[in-house]
Amino acid sequence: MARTNYSKIYAAIRRIPFGKVATYGQIAEVAGLSRQARLVGYALFNQKVDGDLPWHRVVNAQGAISYSPARQKADHLQRVLLEAEGIVFNARGRIDLKQYRWQPKGRQRKA
DNA sequence: CCGTTGACGGCGA
DNA sequence: ATCGCCGCCAACG
Question: How far apart are CA A52 and CA A87, in angstroms?
Answer without folding.
Answer: 19
